[in-house]
DNA sequence: ACCTGAACACCGTTCAAGT
DNA sequence: ACCTGAACACCGTTCAAGT
C-alpha cells in the first residue's frame, strides 16, 4: 500500500529475487509488477525492456564476484577465479539460461570479471592470442560445467521415486552397459560431492593443460621450476 | 493445399528447419502450424507439447553425429569426438539455448553419444568416477565453447558499423587497457579462424591435462610411452 | 486415428492519459 | 519525472467437435 517509489535498483533486486526463486521462465513483466506492487509496465521506464532487465540482473550477479589477486601462484589465482565464477553460477542457476536466451548481455561488472581473468592469464605467462584462448578455455569450462549441473536439478522426489526411475532407465540403457553402470554409480553417490569432484577434476585437468602449454612455450628444458 | 498427412517425423523436421533458420524464440506452435499448413495445435497429437518437441529436435540433432572408433590413439579419438560435438553445436546454434531452457531433455541419440564418450575415456585408461569426470570435462568444455561462440553471433553490420561500435567500446573499456587491447586485436581478426583457434587451444589443453592425469595414475616412471 | 475451431490464461510492448 | 489502464499482437495448451 504505502509502497516506496520505484527505481532501477529496486526493479533489478526484485528481478534477481524472482529469478533465484523460480527461474528464468517465472520472470514476467506482470509477475514482477505484482511483486513490486506496481503495474506490469512500470518497469519499462526504469529498465527499458525485459531483455535489458535480464542483462542488468546478470550484471548484478557478476558484481558479487570477489576477484582476489593475492594468490601464491598463477595456478592458485586462476583456480580461485574459476571457483568464484562457478559459485556465482550455482547460486544463480538461471544465469546460463539468461546468457543463452539473450546472447548480447554485457555490462560493467561482466567486463570487470573478463579483465580480471585476462590479467591472471597474463601473469601466468600467456601473450597475444594465447591470452584470449587461455581465458576462453577457463570460461568455457566453467560455463559448461555449470550448464551440466543445471541438467540434473530435480531431486524433488526422494529415494523411493529414484529407484522407480532407476528401473525405467535400466531398460532404456540396455544397449549401453557402460553408461548404465556409471549411471547407477552416480545415482548412489551424494549429488553435491559429485558435482564438486567433477568440477575439481576438470579444473585440475585444465590447469595442467595450461601449465603444459607454458612449459612448452618457455622451452621444455626446465620443467621442474 | 494437397498437403500430406502429418506424422511425428515431419513435425520434427519442420521444427529443426525453423530452429536452424530463426532460433529458439521463433519456434512457436502457430508458426510451426503455418509451416506445416496445419492448425497450430495439430502437433499436439504427434509430439505431446512444445517442450517435448524441442527435446525431439535436439535428439534429432545428436543423430547427425558420426561416432568413429578407428582413431590411432585415445587422444585422436577423444579429439575427434569433441570436434564432432562442436560441429553439431555450430550447425544448430539453438542447441545450447534449448538445453538451458529445458534441462530435462534426453533421448536415445543423446544417450548414444554419452555412451560413446564414456567408451573413449575408458579406452584411454580412466576408471570409476574418473571416467565420469573425464567425460564431463570434455563435454563441459565443448558446451561452454559453443556457448561462447553464440555470444558473438551478429556480424550483421559490416566493417563500417564495427568501427563505430569499436569507438563506443573504447570509452567503456577505458579502465581496462588489457581488455581493450585484446578486444581490438580480436576485432581485427577473422572471426571464423579465431573461433577454431580458440577451440583447438582449449581442446589441446584439456587433452594435455587428461594425459597428465593418466600419467600420474599409471605411475610417473614411464612418461614417454 | 487424426485434425480443427474456439476458447482460456498468459505474455511483451506501446501509448495516451494521468499526476 | 514517473506511473497507470487499456489495448495490441502474440503465446502454450485444452477440449469439444468433427472426419
TrEMBL record, chains A, B:
Q: Does Acyltransferase appear among the keywords?
A: no
HTH tetR-type domain location is: 5-65
**Domain of life where this protein originates:** Bacteria
Q: Does the keyword Transcription apply?
A: yes
Supply the SUPFAM superfamilies for this chain: Homeodomain-like, Tetracyclin repressor-like, C-terminal domain
User: What keywords are annotated for this sequence in UniProt?
Assistant: DNA-binding, Repressor, Transcription, Transcription regulation
Q: What is the protein's name according to its record?
A: TetR/AcrR family transcriptional regulator C-terminal domain-containing protein
The organism of origin for this protein:
Brevibacterium picturae
Starting at the broadest rank, the lineage of the source organism is: Bacteria, Bacillati, Actinomycetota, Actinomycetes, Micrococcales
Amino acid at each position: 500500500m504505502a509502497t516506496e517509489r520505484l527505481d532501477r535498483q529496486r526493479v533489478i533486486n526484485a528481478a534477481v529475487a524472482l529469478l533465484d526463486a523460480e527461474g528464468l521462465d517465472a520472470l514476467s513483466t506482470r509477475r514482477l509488477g505484482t511483486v513490486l506492487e506496481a503495474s506490469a509496465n512500470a518497469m519499462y521506464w526504469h529498465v527499458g525492456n525485459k531483455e535489458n532487465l535480464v542483462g542488468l540482473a546478470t550484471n548484478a550477479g557478476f558484481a558479487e564476484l570477489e576477484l582476489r589477486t593475492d594468490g601464491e601462484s598463477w595456478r592458485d589465482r586462476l583456480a580461485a577465479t574459476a571457483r568464484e565464477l562457478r559459485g556465482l553460477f550455482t547460486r544463480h542457476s538461471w544465469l546460463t539460461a539468461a546468457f543463452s536466451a539473450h546472447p548480447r548481455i554485457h555490462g560493467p561488472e561482466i567486463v570487470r570479471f573478463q579483465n580480471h581473468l585476462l590479467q591472471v592469464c597474463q601473469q601466468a605467462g600467456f601473450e597475444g592470442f594465447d591470452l584470449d584462448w587461455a581465458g576462453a578455455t577457463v570460461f568455457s569450462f566453467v560455463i559448461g560445467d555449470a550448464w551440466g549441473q543445471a541438467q540434473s536439478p530435480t531431486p524433488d522426489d526422494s529415494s523411493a521415486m529414484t529407484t522407480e526411475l532407476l528401473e525405467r532407465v535400466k531398460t532404456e540403457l540396455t544397449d549401453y552397459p557402460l553408461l548404465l553402470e556409471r549411471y547407477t554409480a552416480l545415482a548412489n553417490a551424494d549429488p553435491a560431492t559429485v558435482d564438486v569432484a567433477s568440477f575439481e577434476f576438470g579444473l585440475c585437468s585444465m590447469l595442467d593443460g595450461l601449465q603444459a602449454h607454458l612449459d612448452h612455450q618457455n622451452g621444455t628444458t626446465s620443467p621442474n621450476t
